[in-house]
Amino acid sequence: MASAVADNPRDRRLITLAGVLPDVDGAGMIVDVAKALTSGQELSFDYYAKFHHVWCHGWPAAILFTAALAFFARRRWRVVWGCLLTFHLHLLCDLLGSRGPSPADLWPICYSEPLFHHPIWFLKNQWRLDGWQNRTIFVAVLLPALWVGVKKGASFVEVLSLRADRVFVGVLQKWRTQISTGGGAGE
Ligand SMILES: [Zn+2]
Questions:
Q1: Ligand 1 centre and the CA of 92: distance in Å?
Q2: Distance 91 CA to ligand 1 centre (A)
Q3: Closest CA relative to residue 98, chosen from 88, 90, 87, 106
Q4: Contact (Cβ atoms closer than 8 angstroms) between residue 107 and residue 91
Q5: What are the residue ranges in the chain where pLDDT is below 50?
Q6: Cα of 187 to ligand 1 centre, how many Å?
Q7: I need a labelling partner for 40 at 20 to 30 A (CA). Which of 12, 17, 55, 96 fits?
């Protein structure tokens, strides 16, 4: 999505970040683990459950993150729209498929938290986080994403490292050439 909206690595990174940032409210898990380790008590996920999907999964966080990210952008308005898009795609994916192991472990989206308690959105048929639906979507999205990398000369790896991305895209393009010429003779 970032590569469809932005034409430079910096803006693509910012837009991608906006799609990942909502889950920083899951950082309470680190506190939970630290608490269990230092106190010797059994591991509970109190902080994780209390803040995850609450603090950064609503419109207040969308505005905050988007404003902060757009500040660093080259093409500001494009990044604003791109960030809002990937942020809300994250929420949609969570709403559809982030359930826990039992059918009652539904994760709601509290779209106005932490400012207001309503609305709270549930999906009764929410599928499991590790369900076949998510794995299918992963493969279905990965293949076109690799194709974008080959076509545009920049893939999602650039979020981590531009140098690693050049190597990665180079390998993909070599494969494409080999496939289109019907084999890897001479390589
Ligand atoms: Zn999330």
A1: 9
A2: 6
A3: 106
A4: no
A5: 185-187
A6: 43
A7: 55
- Asked whether 16 and 83 are in contact (CB, 8 A), the reply is no
Q: What is the pLDDT of residue 49?
A: 74
List pLDDT tens digits, range 164-183.
999 999 999 999 989 888 76
Going from the Cα of 89 to the center of ligand 1, the distance in angstroms, rounded, reads 10
Ligand 1 center–CA 22 separation, angstroms: 5
CA distance 170 to 149: 10
pTM score, two decimals?
Answer: 0.85
Output the DSSP codes for the chain: -HHHH-SSHHHHHHHHHHHHGGGGGGGHHHHHHHHHHHH-PPP--HHHHHHTTTSSSSHHHHHHHHHHHHTT-SSHHHHHHHHHHHHHHHHHHHHHH-B-SSTT-PPPEETTTTT----EE--TTPPBTTSHHHHHHHHHHHHHHHHHHHHHS--GGGGT-HHHHHHHHHHHHHHHHHHHTTS-TT-
Cβ pair 119, 112 in contact under 8 A: yes
Q: Is 172 within 8 Å of 145 (Cβ atoms)?
A: no
Q: How far is the CA of 10 from the centre of ligand 1 (A)?
A: 23
Cα 112 to ligand 1 centre (Å): 15
User: According to the model, what pLDDT value does residue 186 have?
Assistant: 47
